[in-house]
Design a protein that fits this description.
- By secondary structure, this protein is mainly α.
- It is built from 9 helices and no strands.
- The longest helix is centred in the N-terminal third of the chain and has 35 residues.
- The termini are far apart.
């Protein structure tokens, strides 16, 4: 398993990070502005970490609501039932694989898991998707669509049927953070923190509890819907505030935003 973990990390470096650096150098020559190599101040990091605190429970509510609706559609339609069975098989494969990767019985293994699941993906995936891909689109289309397209590619890359929309929203938040801060270190930090929280949650609750995202009763569904609506409103207010007053958290002049 340790060999598989190292192989996974090496694959990310060779197949995601290296192509991003090579393509950036070949296409743009100057790598620094494309990959947004800039050190943010602590206020910039702190404000986006605060947003992550809002978005993580929001995405969990989204998954609960989504899975309940899929269950109901599967009950009423044989077509959706077949789709759900296919998604269930894919989800089980992913859960089993990640469960094996995240399992650790020693301090060394825990450090290795953190490296493979949080550090390496945080750097490699952000440099590629938020660095090369998003910035390339920003040069030719509006920022929103550049963020959306690169986030869509990010979500498809993870090949997670039940996590697709959650990953899309999370990736768009990462894209928003890198666009506003102009620093790749911001989404790298957010990505690392998000994955680290998942690792810690796995160590505390285990694979079976984390894999359980089904809502059994209508009352649970209603509670999650209300929570999802509330957190969505909070998130939009937060994004609006950050966008409008970002100059307060950075060294950028107000006119530059």
């Amino acid at each position: 398993m340790n060999a598989f973990r190292l192989f996974t990390a090496a694959g990310q470096i060779l197949l995601i990070l290296a192509p991003a650096l090579i393509l950036t150098k070949l296409v743009y020559i100057d790598v620094t502005p494309i990959l947004r190599v800039k050190t943010p101040n602590w206020k910039e990091l702190a404000v986006f970490v605060l947003g992550l605190v809002i978005i993580i429970p929001l995405l969990q509510n989204l998954i609960y609501v989504q899975n309940f609706l899929i269950q109901q559609l599967a009950i009423k339609s044989t077509v959706f039932e077949s789709i759900k069975l296919f998604f269930d098989e894919m989800d089980k494969m992913l859960t089993d694989t990640y469960g094996d990767i995240l399992s650790a019985s020693s301090i060394f293994e825990m450090i290795l898991v953190l490296l493979v699941v949080a550090v390496v993906p945080g750097v490699c995936e952000e440099v590629f998707f938020r660095g090369f891909v998003q910035k390339s689109f920003e040069l030719s289309i509006k920022p929103f669509w550049a963020i959306f397209i690169s986030s869509l590619a990010f979500s498809l890359y993870h090949f997670n049927p039940y996590g697709f929309f959650a990953l899309l929203i999370l990736a768009m938040y990462f894209g928003f953070s890198v666009y506003l801060s102009n620093s790749i270190l911001v989404p790298i930090t957010l990505h690392f923190l998000h994955n680290s929280i998942s690792i810690i949650a796995f160590f505390i609750w285990g694979k079976e509890e984390l894999a359980n995202s089904a809502i059994i009763t209508l009352e649970e569904f209603e509670i999650n819907i209300l929570s999802l609506i509330f957190l969505t409103i909070i998130l939009f207010l937060f994004l609006f505030y950050v966008k409008k007053y970002y100059y307060k958290f950075s060294n950028i002049n107000k006119e530059a935003i």
